[in-house]
Design a protein that fits this description.
Layout (H helix, E strand, L loop, with lengths): L1 E4 H17 L3 H13 L3 H20 L9 E9 L2 E4 L4 H13 L11 E2 L6 E2 L7 E7 L4 E8 L1 H4 L3 E5 L5 H8 L11 E8 L2 H11 L6 H9 L6 H14 L14 E9 L6 E8 L5 E6 L26 E4 L5 H5 L6 E10 L2 H12 L12 E3 L24 H11 L3 E4 L5 H9 L3 E4 L5 H5 L2 E8 L8 E15 L6 H20 L3
Parallel strand pairs: 1-3, 2-6, 9-10, 13-14, 14-15, 15-16, 16-17
Antiparallel strand pairs: 2-7, 4-5, 7-12, 8-11, 9-11, 14-19, 17-19, 18-19
Length: about 500
């Protein structure tokens, strides 16, 4: 009989979530670096460079990889011979571990979990409760997997009840482009097949906890070894999704996914439920085993596990935001790399909702947006001598429904976020001769180093969703939608899908 003590379990959970906040899995970094070396699209290569540099900086500084430090997800496989020495339930112990991790003063993490989701949506302030999946298995230990899943990738989860004769591959290839780039590719696709709808979703999520090994599977196939049906599906989906040309951050390129993971389960004769959940560039998970001999020991990775890449600012055009004019904005071309200098305002979902409500009532906003830029961000709280914690962009499409009113009634000149804009937002940008700039999702700590001053200037009660004023120096962005309404998220993947098809044709034997 193994006895698991309450404090050992709680501290192991706390240590795990602190660990994954700042350390990418080594296999992910290796796969991303190989994709970086292989990439031919300058925009995608630049995005991957920022993600790799950011990852190494986070490992060195022990700060979060992404400003969205995720919702806490825990998979538990509890041996039947395990006994708990605890006054708390397992769920309560997990929550206490998460609470400690997210409120750790040395590396405070952003609390993103909201209570009363269909009502007041009040922040729990400690990122609890966690989402816990229990399984009772044979054995005398506890297997624990902790993952921090960001909202941008979680929101792109898909499910469909296919007919038994339908093609899973066709559904995936058709569905991935509808996900946009808000899940921050290049990442990993988790696919669950079979069971019931809720089982398929759980399988998809659990599949993402496995290590990146598509290169091993490709080598196995090349050797002529027999592949299982699931292995065949993984390779086929991997090749066909990357052939879409979506690329890093949706900018167009050779690599959209670094791996495809699949778990399946027996299902009803009339059913073929299929779920797909992406893991973003901030892939964060860790597995450990508890055997009753104290808390888990998580080995600190070596810095040499990360490639040494420096960010080249020589290709960027420096912009003075404090003296910007509409004429200068109109001169920017899609794909231009800009280095922003000066003051920008911030605001995301809650702030936009409140501002639009105020505008509808004829009330004055707390700040003047005339000829200003707004950055869609909810930063991590600073620690020690930081001006601000990691402050990467959030998904811009969630602000699409507010865009026209903000542009037409506030004098706003431009927006900064991650991923694409939808048709309505692009039309509003074009009509108002504004611009949308894209910062790289997954480079939050790198971006924060460009922020030299920060203060709250509106809606302080919204916490991380308040309106801040940042003073930035050489903050790297890409012109994603120009003042004429041309979107690189439309033109880039379209061009690269053609290039990839041409490359494939050239490799075929005559």
């Amino acid at each position: 009989m193994t006895i698991i003590r309450q404090e050992d379990f709680i501290q192991s959970i706390a240590d795990a979530f602190q660990y994954i906040s700042c350390y990418h899995p080594k296999d992910y970094i290796e796969a991303l670096y190989q994709a970086y070396l292989h990439e031919e699209s300058p925009a995608a290569k630049d995005a991957m460079a920022q993600i790799l540099i950011n990852s190494r900086m986070c490992a060195e500084g022990r700060r979060p990889i992404c400003q969205d430090t995720g919702i806490a997800v825990v998979f538990l496989k509890v041996g039947m011979k395990v006994q708990w020495d605890s006054t708390l339930s397992v769920q309560e112990m997990v929550n206490e571990g998460v609470r400690r991790a997210y409120n750790n003063p040395d590396n405070k993490l952003r609390a993103s979990v909201l209570l009363d989701p269909a009502g007041k949506r009040q922040n729990s302030k400690d990122n609890t409760p966690a989402v816990v999946h229990f399984e009772i298995v044979e054995g005398d230990g506890v297997e624990v997997t902790c993952a921090a899943k960001g909202g941008g990738s979680e929101n792109k989860s898909k499910f469909y009840a296919l007919n038994p004769s339908d093609s899973i591959v066709d559904w995936v290839v058709k569905t991935v482009p509808t996900m946009g780039a808000g899940w921050c590719p290049p990442g990993i696709l988790g696919i669950g097949i079979g069971g019931t709808p809720e089982k398929a979703m759980l399988l998809a999520k659990e599949s993402l906890m496995d290590h990146v090994d598509i290169h091993e599977l490709k080598a196995k196939a090349a050797s002529g070894a027999e592949l299982t049906r699931v292995e065949q599906l993984r390779l086929e989906i991997f090749e066909k999704v990357n052939a879409l040309g979506i690329g890093a951050q949706g900018l167009g390129g050779l690599t959209t996914v670094l791996d495809v993971k699949i778990l399946d389960y027996p299902t009803h004769a009339a059913s073929l439920p299929v779920a797909m959940i992406p893991n973003c560039a901030a892939t964060r998970h860790i597995h450990f085993h508890l055997d009753g001999n104290g808390p888990a020991v998580l080995e600190t990775p070596k810095l040499e596990d990360w490639p040494e890449i420096t960010y080249d600012t020589s290709n960027g055009k420096r912009v003075d935001l404090d003296n910007i004019t509409p004429a200068e904005v109109a001169s920017w071309q899609p794909g231009d790399v800009l280095l922003l200098n000066g003051k920008i305002l911030t605001g995301r979902d809650a702030a936009h909702k409140r501002m639009v409500d105020m505008l509808n009532k004829g009330e004055k906003l707390p700040v003047d947006f005339t000829n200003r830029f707004i950055y869609y961000v909810g930063p991590v709280d600073p620690v020690r001598d930081e001006v601000v914690g990691p402050a990467g962009p959030t998904t811009a499409t969630r602000m699409d429904k507010f865009t026209r009113q903000m542009l037409e009634q506030t004098g706003l000149l431009g927006m900064i976020g991650k991923a694409e804009r939808g048709p309505a937002a692009i039309e509003a940008i074009k009509d108002n001769k504004a611009v949308y700039l894209m910062a790289v999702g997954g480079s939050a700590y790198l971006v924060s180093k460009a922020i030299k001053a920060s203060k709250v200037v509106g809606f302080a009660d919204l916490g991380m969703e308040a309106i801040y004023e940042f003073e930035v120096q050489d903050m790297p962005v890409t012109v994603a939608v120009d003042s004429c309404g041309t979107s690189v998220h439309n033109t880039g993947p379209a061009a690269w899908s053609v290039k990839i098809a041409d490359i494939a044709r050239a490799k075929r034997p005559a």
